[in-house]
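no rush on this but wanted to send it before i forget. theres a chain ive been looking at and ive put its sequence and its fold in token form underneath. please have a look and point out which stretches look like helix strand or loop to you. thanks a lot i owe you, the record is right below:
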Amino acid sequence: MNEKRETGRKIMREVLGEDYFQRREASTNSFNAPLRQLSEEMAFGTIWSRPGIPRKYRSLLCLAMLTALNRPHEIRIHTNSALNNGCTVEEIQEVLLQATVYSGVPAGVDAFRAAEEVLKERGKL
């Protein structure tokens, strides 16, 4: 395993949580392994490891972009990571509102639903 991948896996555990990481590991197979390696090395080993901005801001950026792309499954994952990285419910709400204005109400509705589900599961609502 190369250094970027090792770094990425460590950061992924910290950002997304051990439960998520273990479920991901258990479901890795020969078909999806190359994609997972790519995300470990590129997203987490290269980008999330950069010192330029705090992880909290990276989480909020992810939520905004995922809202614009209308990716509710990933919004659930990254709402969890935002909470893990110290984001407040109000910060998450404000980012989703801002993204809704620029990406459209249907995408915003899906984002709010996905985030609300996680916030309820985590006892934040």
The helical segments are 3-16, 18-26, 33-47, 55-68, 72-84, 89-103, 105-121. The chain has a mean pLDDT of 98. The longest helix spans residues 105-121.
